[in-house]
């Protein structure tokens, strides 16, 4: 930095040693900043890897819990299909929540919400 000597109108030029000192100070500061950024980056990466490994272990645990349940459910569905096939009748036991037509037949489309019906008072005349 330029310093003003007493009695001079303009700032004096820094000496070679002052300029070199300023440059070296800035260089060391930038090195410290880069080291700090690198350390934080490495810490962030380490934490992300730990988090990933933790999630992976949780998923393995969930998977090991769900696989036997899914296997039992598949077995039950297959047993039900076999039973229905032996009886020769279509399986409607799972259709109880499906709406029926005016003739009493089951339909695969869900019933409209009560507010969506044409004759609902909220829908106007």
TrEMBL record:
Region entry Disordered: which residue ranges? 83-125
Q: Where is the composition biased (Basic and acidic residues)?
A: 115-125
Q: Where is the sequence biased in composition, kind Polar residues?
A: 99-110
- What is the official name of this protein in its record? Uncharacterized protein
Whose protein is this, by species?
Answer: Pleurodeles waltl (Iberian ribbed newt)
């Amino acid at each position: 930095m330029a310093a003003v000597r007493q009695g001079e109108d303009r700032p004096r030029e820094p000496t070679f040693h002052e300029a070199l000192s300023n440059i070296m100070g800035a260089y060391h500061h930038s090195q410290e900043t880069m080291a700090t950024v690198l350390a934080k980056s490495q810490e962030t990466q380490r934490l992300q890897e730990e988090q990933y490994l933790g999630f992976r272990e949780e998923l393995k645990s969930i998977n090991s819990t769900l696989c036997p349940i899914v296997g039992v459910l598949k077995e039950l569905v297959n047993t039900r299909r076999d039973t229905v096939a032996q009886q020769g009748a279509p399986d409607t036991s799972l259709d109880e929540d499906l709406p029926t037509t005016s003739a009493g037949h089951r339909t695969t489309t869900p019933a409209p919400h009560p507010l969506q019906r044409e004759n609902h008072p909220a829908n106007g005349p």
